Each structure stands twice: as C-alpha cells, then as structure tokens.
Amino acid sequence: MMKNRMRTSLIVAARLVFGLAVLGGIDSEAGGQCDYEVSAIIERPDCGGEPAIYFNGIDITDTGEVGGTFTCFLSPQAATWDAVNGLIPLPFLSGFSQAKVGGLTSINEMVGTQFSSTLDWRAVIWQNGVPSRLPDWPGTTLSFAFAINRDGWITGYWGNSISGPGEAAIIWKPDGSMININDDLPGTSSQGRDINAHGQVTGWIGSFPSSQAFLWDNGQVTELPLIPGGTMSLGRAINNLGLIVGSGLVTVEGSTSVEHAFYWDGLTTIDLGTLPGFERSVARDINDASQIVGSSSVPSVHAFLWRDGVMIDLHSFLPSQFDGTGMTAKSINRGGDILLAGGNVGVILSPISSGPGDIDNNCSVNVSDLLLLISEWGESISVADINLDGSVNVTDLLLLLGSWG
Questions:
Q1: In angstroms, rounded to a whole number, what is the distance separating the alpha carbons of residues 332 and 237?
Q2: Do 157 and 137 meet the contact criterion of CB atoms below 8 Å apart?
Q3: Angstrom distance (rounded) from CA 405 to CA 401
Q4: Other CB atoms within 10 A of residue 221 CB
Q5: For the whole model, what pTM was predicted?
Q6: Is 255 exposed, middle or buried (0-12, 13-18, 19+ CB in 10 A)?
Q7: Spatial contact of 261 and 272, defined as CB atoms under 8 Å apart
Q8: Are 102 and 156 in contact (CB under 8 A)?
Q9: Neighbour count for residue 162 (Cβ, 10 Å)
Q10: Which of 19, 207, 248, 363 could potentially form a cystine with 230 if both were Cys, beta carbons 3.0 to 4.6 Å apart?
Q11: How many CB atoms lie within 10 A of CB 191?
Q12: What is the per-residue pLDDT for 92?
C-alpha cells in the first residue's frame, strides 16, 4: 500500500514536470540516438608463438565482462575477458577437447558445451574458471547450454541421437534439478536459447525450416506469431520484460525466402527489415531498454542497433581498420555496451552517455527516464535500478536527478 501511494505521488509530480516542459517548449524526448565509441578491442591470444585463428565473442555482462571462444590448432576453447585481466583461457574437462560458449553472468560463471569423442557434446558450467558437467536428463546422449540467468538457472537442450528426441528444451537449476520444458511444448523437438531473470525461456519448436519461436513461462507456452508473410521463426533472446527477438524466413518477390530479424513486443511480431542495401538480417539480443542488436547481410555483413523503429549501421562507429570487415553484433548489456565479433577479434562499442540516469540509453537524461523510473518503483529486477542495490528507490531517483539534462 505504501509503495503504491509513493508511486502515485511520484507519477503526479512527474506529470507536472512533463507538463511544464511541454509548456516551456522543451522536447521531453530530446536526446535521440547516441554516438558510440570503441571502448575495447579483444585481440586473439597467443598459441605457441602464433596468434589464434580467431576470437569469437558471444556474450557481454552488465559490467562489461565478455565470454567467447578462440581457436588454436583447429580446437575451439572457451575464454573470458575483462578490462583488468584481459583474455583468460578456460580449461577442458578431462577427456574433452573442444568447447562452445553459450552465455555468462560474470567471468566467474559461464555456461557452454564441451566435446568428447566418447560422450559427444555435453553441457557444462565454468565456475571460478573450473568446468563441471551439468546433469544428464535420463536418456541423454548429447546436451548444449546456451544461457544462464543471475539466479543460476540455465537453458539449452538435451537429446538422444539414437532413440530421440533429437533436441528437447530444458532448464537446469543450481540445486541439480531439471525441468524438461519440451514436455510443455507442442511437437517432439525444441531448443531453449535464452532465459531471463524471471525464468522465462525463449527458443524454438520443431526443426528448420519449419520451426516456430516460443515463450515458456512456468509451464505456460505462447507460440509467437510469425512475421507477416513469414514461414518460420527462431527465438534467440528475451529481456527481463519478456520481450523477444530472433529471426524468421519471409517470402519476398513472390517466391524467394530470406531471413529477417523480428521483435515480439508481447502482442505483435514486428519485421525489423534490413539495413539499406542489404537482403537479410538476424536479431541476436535485446536489453531492458528494448535496444536490439544483430547483423544485416548480403552482399556483406554489418552489425546493427535497432531502437524506436530505427535501424542504425554500427559499422559507421568503427575505426578504418575494420573497413571491409564483416561484423556481427552478438550481445548488448543494460548500459548499452555492444559486443561485436568479426575480423578475428572482438570489439566493444559503448554509447557516449549522459550519465547514470540515462535509463533508456538515448544519451539524454530527461522526463522519459523519470517516467520509466517511476513506473518501475520498488521493483527488484529493473533497468531503473541505477545503483544495482536490488530495488528501484529514492537513491536511484537522486542519481537520475543529479545527471539531468
């Protein structure tokens, strides 16, 4: 009751500020799109005197830590990177020789998959740099882990290459228990690809080219509508508001099917289109400010950022050394830092921000940020929790007002 009264009072105050801004001729949405700068380039590590074949960044945390893979001598290996320690290779399990990275919450907790010639691919978690296998669902002959949330819930899929199912979406919990969410989904095949702080999962049902994106929420399943004119869809990422991005095939010119990025806003699946002059696109991540990143391809590959109906070519913010280099945006964190991969290295683009109060990452602290903070008042998981203390409260309000303008 007290929380609701406080929120109501703040809403009234914010509307008064908004009205005064309008009467004074001030644009409450001023700020628009941000400029970006390269804040880090993650170089390939050394492999016995020669550089690794590549570094492929996969995920970036809210504090700017990165997980990815590099390859020495044709054997992919997991690694973490942060600005203090640089790139740190992570070990294999005994008897395993290749690794793929799914996602991480920090450099101390990352999930992925490792390969053994006798056990095939098996889902793993690295904790403080030490790998361990995730539990097997009965009948498992292979498993993949793609994402982990801050409570340690992990999603991916397991499969039985002999008797089936080939792929079955699953959640692993930190207490060792599992939820075979494939049982809640229509059909016999599925993958879990991302999980948010509330335990909601997205991925896809079925196999390419007839798969369909879904939202799983504590046993309740929503099959996402296809892009208008679409024939299939893949859910690739979900934010803490339950909004989903991915890609789907859409028919153009009467017969040709091409891949287009999509954004599901909770009701409608929106075709994000492509960058000008490109034929295809894929959306790979979305943050809580509903900023979406991915890539547009054919005839080349350029990373993009989409927000508020505008798709921005991130190549324009890269130095000349990346001219002609195909770059994909893999991940975006709550502060708007974007992880790009391409040219055998990782690149972090960071917005030239207006301060900690820029909640919606539009490079201006104004009424829209204030209204967003008030709407999230008292929430524990929110982009408006500026100081990350687990609650949107007066401290966050003071930080916002301190960086106003």
A1: 11
A2: no
A3: 9
A4: 15
A5: 0.88
A6: exposed
A7: yes
A8: yes
A9: 7
A10: 248
A11: 26
A12: 96
98-106 vs 86-89, strand pairing mode: unpaired
Q: For residue range 199-256, list pLDDT tens digits in order.
A: 999 999 998 788 999 999 999 999 999 999 999 999 999 999 999 999 999 987 766 7
The Cα diameter of the chain in Å comes to 71
Instruction: Please state, in angstroms and as integers, the Cα–Cα distance from residue 104 to each residue in 33, 76, 79, 248, 349, following that order.
Output: 28, 17, 11, 26, 19
Work out the angle at residue 309's Cα, subtended by the Cα atoms of residues 303 and 310, and round it to the nearest 5 degrees.
45
pLDDT confidence tier of residue 10, bands split at 50, 70 and 90: low
Classify burial at 147, counting beta carbons within 10 Å of its beta carbon; exposed 0-12, middle 13-18, buried 19 or more.
Answer: buried
Q: Tell me phi and psi for residue 324, to 5 degrees.
A: 80, 0
pLDDT digits (tens, 9 = 90+) for 321-341: 998 889 999 999 998 999 999
DSSP 206: S
Give the C-alpha separation, 234 to 248, whole Å.
6
Task: Name which of 125, 40, 116 is nearest 78 in CA terms.
Answer: 125
- The amino acid sitting at 20 is L
Residues in the chain, total: 405
51-101 confidence digits (pLDDT tens): 888 899 999 999 999 999 999 878 899 999 999 999 999 999 999 999 999
pLDDT at 33: 67
